[in-house]
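Convert to structure. Protein one:
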Amino acid sequence: RPADPLVARLVDVRNVFDARVVALDGGMRALEWQGRLLEAMVPSHFATGDRVGWCIPMAGVRLKRRDRAAEPDRENPVDGQVSECVTLGEDTTLALRVDGLAAPLWLRLSTHIAERDAIRVGTALRVCLLAEALHVMPWRDAPAE
């Protein structure tokens, strides 16, 4: 739970982005991120329209199983294409290029899943950003990774 994007980067959180707080029907609030609505626990001290930072650990970015329907209200589905794939023993780290983003979205999965699903550079994937893992923080301009 870093205090701001700079701290997040200092502690090596790779998935750090900015968004705007938006109001939804029924008084709920969410984040507008690159044209997508993300469900998140938005602290009450942020007002609708505020620019905020948000981060998510790689463990909160989950590969979407092809055989299950998305639950957009919980899972925040995002589509992209693998731009980097690094295997180190039992873990494979992926960089996912998402339309409209300069920086990739990073995730880690077990190597046997990457091999089973033939995931490599160029593979199109759908991932889910778990709402409970998404951390909202005050925005302060932070140097890009």
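Protein two, convert as well:
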Amino acid sequence: MSPFNMPTSLHNLLSIDLILRQTAPHLSTSALLSLSATNKSFRTLINTNSEAWRYLDLSKVKSARIDTSPIDAGGISWRAERMDEALTEDDFYSGPLRGIFSKLHTKGVLRFVHTLILDGLPVPADLVREIIAEDRFSVRVLSLRDCRHLNHTKLQQVLRYAVRPGRLDGSPKLRALYVFGHKDSQRSKVKTQTTITQQAPSGVLASEGAQIGSEWNSRSSETLNNSLPNDDQQRWYDRSGRALIRTTSAWADTLQACENIITFD
């Protein structure tokens, strides 16, 4: 059999960096880990190729959220810390994400993550400091939109310290921070109902120009409806006119300090 006629395996396809780079962002974290656990070849491919982990979205990972169920004798290891009186509030809320980061670091893939999405998750400022400052992270783009338990005053202090004069060369690694806007939500697409007549058009409507115009009007209407936000995303068009969660006036000094170093949304 000619080598050009031999079937291509999934492993061979993902071994191409370009294909892996385009495919990996569409796979969940659990899917990547499951794929790496298939066999030794996939484990080597996924855990040693930076393209597989360049983009990491944890916003939809259930284990990254706080479990509010009653404390039991078992469960996730970090939950046992709830009984520790010395446990701080920030330690408690950052527990799930710390556990995930620890697991990824053990597998040696955390250093590959350049874009990290934590929208809507409990992310205390101390955890942001670790992401920005610690060597085990290599995050260039960080998204913290609608994050809970995030003290913005502490976050500003973390950022100003990260960009302080006299810092180490090449630091901070962070180049972009999304923190002011709202997180993306699953948008319900508005279906355009187009009435199609079964009878052949007559008169002026039968002309070629009228038919082309009708088709383009239909396409324009569908595009407009798909681009408009649904009822829970009217923040760009509501009466208040406010597009941001909070005013950026309190951030003025921090934004100025980070100018030409960290870009904000």
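The two ends are 55 Å apart (CA to CA). The CA atoms of residues 103 and 261 lie 30 Å apart.
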